[in-house]
Amino acid sequence: MALSIVDSVMVGRLGAVPLAGVSVGVGIFNVLLVLGIGLSLAVSTLSAHARGLGDKAEGGEVLLHGFWVCLLSGLFMQGLLMLGLPWLSLLNQKPVVEQQIRWYLQALGYSFLPIMLFQAFRQFIEGLEWMKPALWIAVLSIPLNAGLNSLLIFGLWGFPALGVEGAAWATVIARWVMALAMMIYVLTHRDLRGFWTHRFSPRFIRIQPLIRMLFLGLSSGFQYIFETSAFAGAAIVIGWLGAEALAAHQVAINIASMSFMVAVGLSASASIRIGYARGLGDLVLARRIGWVAMGITVALMSLCALVFVIWNQELPAFYISDPVVLRAASTLLLIAAAFQLVDGLQALGVGLLRGMEDKRIPTLLVLVAYWIVALPLGTYLVMNSSYGLYGMWVALAGGLLLSAIFLILRFLHLTAHSPQKGD
Hints:
By secondary structure, the chain is mostly helical.
């Protein structure tokens, strides 16, 4: 997420049109990416479950199948994006914005494979509760991406000034460095070598664990797709209002995404801990983990909301200097502050239910919240009322609220009156 934000901040120096192009481009890219992220999150849940069982052989199978699922999904998403590029005109964006989108996505598509390779190894060790390696690799990639952006966006030190395309290529390079660093760490660490005795040969793939991983991962992936595609659809509808409105949306959604990633991190943590508790056969512990995670989420998201209220005018100024865009983005941040709690809880709810290996019902609940309620209502408010850009954000907040209520109640239902191990 930080790499995307660095791209937006630095592209914003080029003006509203390039920033608007990156806004739609990131939205389209993320619709595909979250499917892969959802698939990879199954790796951490199943890795944690194997750890709870104390079964190292099953852990090795999780790593093997996770590697192949992530590798093939990365190639699939890259191919799907490239096939879709000729159809960008169907989005009905301004021609100058459409060209920026095309340049950005043509390059950024090559980052799907390194992202998914990074995720395969990262999610496996995070299921073992090894969190620091991925953290440090990700943190160190941020200045790398920023430096590459300076060279390739603006053409410093004799490099060509590629604009939005340069931002995309910088991100591709940074993500390959991340993937290689994570793979080297896992495959050379002496405490992890015992998990990869199969050497990742496809002849060791077994149907049952593969299907289990795919079903759990696809359910999480589709939940994220329904949410992300709703926000991408919102960006497309907002783009009909003009480049300034779309740029303001991109600035505000970038800032709000940082707080959202706090909730996603807690969601992943809760999923791992609940998977471990299920491996122990202790669903009372799983329910307790859920309550603790909810309390932490409410506290941290309340803090994020306070930051948005206090600095709603200063934060957008890091992205762009256009006064029209700044005014709109500042107002959007106030709306974002109002839905921080529900945004955090719905992100957490996805992780809680993934830890329970609950598949079909959460996916349907998220579909209803975003595609049956939020996006149609937002489109109506944009096109048929005086609310315009702000109407879409209010509608999206309503979708977040419904999703949070549905998912949390589902988790509490699944863990109600569950016997503790040994009872």
